[in-house]
Design goal:
Number of strands: 17
Number of helices: 15
Bound molecules: zinc ion
Helix content: 40-55%
Largest sheet: 6 strands, parallel
Structural class: alpha/beta
Shape: globular
């Protein structure tokens, strides 16, 4: 009996224990469900409330709020995050290009930037970089280098059957391979591309007159500013088929690139000349450009500009130099395309210069002939560039006459030519000069000598005759092996 009673008690105890366990499981499930529910509720509430401050930032966010679904509120939040990240990426480039104030201003333009750690960190970083930049103290010693249209493949261009052309190209041209090596080495040595307008600019005086004054360039120690230009970016008729690009175009991303017309009628697109190559380089190395500066492109007008046949003769069978094959050109269309490319280049920071209309020596030309040529450039070329071109890059490295290096008041005939060109709006004058730098500042103008980084200069260095390039790069590492040697000075 005792035994029976104790077994019955044991069974009751076990049943009770099972009931307790079951109740505990049910309770635990309820608690878990409650916790999950609360978490979801809190998440939903917080996504709703964080929407509020962002709504003031953009009309698009307000529009989303009006439709009122939480899914769209989430999208807005993501978009706002992407927005400040895009601003930060842009500001970082401005900082790398030594435009610290612009970088700081951009970040401070983001609503609630103080509350975003990445943005307040960026401002401290930009301020620290700004503190390292000092005014460049050798403004009158800034060098200016220039190229002609680049040779794509020396084994083609330097081995054409026309010996006269080969000599000419070998002397004054530079290959893409040489250009890339020079650019890389100048970058490695701390050279930074500046705009000629960063060096000097016209300033209005208290009496209302204008005077050319030095600018201020802020760079960290160890950086050296330089100006870049390229002459005759016309892709002249005489160069067709000689292994150069045929024109500059705008690609689907709004970048500037080249086209090469192939013999079979197809077109190859890519970076085959200086402008797109510099764009590629700056994309990789933003700190190669001071505040977005690019180079100066010097243009004549007798064929057209940038590879477009914009000169009147292409559309005028009564013109004495008209050829039947010009019938393929629609000159209005050529001009529209040239205008679009030039405008996009200017947006990117490129500047344009007159290289005279007919590639004329302005020093040797009579005043009357200079007037005629300069006026043709004003009428036919400047409008394609949006007007207001203020720079002359003299063909043949010439200037306005014998002794003009002393100043444009050196003789009456020089003064007369200068006054005329000044009246057309030219304030920057660039001859060619072999020395490392040559500048001249006068009240009415700024002059800067340019150095040709071409076959003859590199040959001088490589052959041991004289090295005028060693401050920029080592010619022995650069000189293209496809060049016939010796390179002759024509
Ligand atoms: Zn030229």
């Amino acid at each position: 009996m005792d035994n029976y009673n104790s077994r019955a008690r044991e069974l009751r105890r076990r049943r009770r224990r099972r009931r307790v366990i079951r109740n505990r499981i049910i309770f635990a499930c309820v608690v878990i469900l409650l916790v999950v529910g609360i978490v979801f509720l809190v998440k939903w509430l917080s996504s709703g409330s964080s929407e509020t401050p962002k709504d003031t930032s953009a009309p698009a966010a307000n529009a989303t709020e009006a439709t009122g679904t939480s899914a769209e509120a989430g999208t807005t939040q993501a978009a706002a995050g992407a927005d400040w990240q895009a601003v930060l990426a842009e500001a970082d480039i401005h900082c790398k290009q030594y435009n610290y104030d612009k970088a700081i201003e951009l970040v401070k333009g983001v609503n609630g930037y103080e509350g975003i750690p990445e943005l307040s960190d960026a401002i401290s970083r930009y301020e620290a970089e700004k503190a390292k930049a000092v005014p460049y103290d050798k403004m009158s010693e800034i060098t200016h280098v220039f190229y002609h249209t680049l040779v794509i493949d020396g084994s083609v261009t330097f081995h054409l059957s026309d010996a006269k052309k080969v000599k000419d190209y070998n002397q004054v041209m530079t290959t893409i391979d040489e250009f890339n090596k020079i650019t890389q080495e100048m970058y490695d040595r701390g050279y930074v591309l500046v705009d000629i307008h960063d060096i000097a600019h016209l300033e209005t005086q208290p009496d209302g007159t204008q005077k050319m004054v030095w600018g201020t360039i802020y760079l960290p120690e160890g950086k050296t500013p330089f100006v870049l230009s390229q002459d005759d970016v016309s892709y002249y008729e005489y160069m067709e088929g000689d292994g150069f690009a045929n024109r500059l175009v705008i690609d689907e991303n709004g970048s500037i690139t080249n086209e090469i017309d192939q013999a079979d009628g197809s077109v190859v697109t890519g970076s085959y000349d200086m402008v797109p190559l510099v764009e590629d380089f700056i994309r990789e190395h933003p700190d190669f450009s001071y505040r977005g500066a690019r180079g100066i492109i010097a243009l004549t007008g007798y064929n057209g500009i940038l590879g477009y046949r914009t000169a009147p003769k292409y559309g005028d069978p009564s013109d004495s130099s008209y050829k039947p094959e010009y019938a393929k050109y629609n000159v209005d269309e050529e001009r529209q395309k040239a205008t679009a490319v030039a405008a996009r280049m200017q947006e990117l920071g490129w500047r344009f210069a007159s290289h005279s209309w007919g590639h004329k020596d302005y020093g040797a030309l009579s005043f009357e002939k200079l007037q005629t040529d300069a006026q043709k450039w004003e009428d036919q070329v400047e409008p394609l560039l949006g007007g207001n071109i203020d720079t002359i890059i003299f063909p043949f490295g010439a200037d306005l006459g014998e002794g003009s290096w002393r100043g444009y008041d050196h003789s009456d005939s020089i003064q007369q030519k200068y006054k005329y060109l000044d009246g057309l709006g030219f304030d920057y004058y660039c001859p060619v000069d072999g020395s490392q730098y040559w500048t001249q500042m006068k009240d009415g103008y700024f002059r800067q000598g340019r150095r040709n980084l071409d076959g003859i200069r590199m040959w001088w260095a490589v052959s041991g005759y004289k090295d005028t390039l060693s401050d920029l790069f080592d010619a022995n590492k650069v000189f293209d092996k496809t060049r016939p040697t010796p390179v002759e000075n024509l």
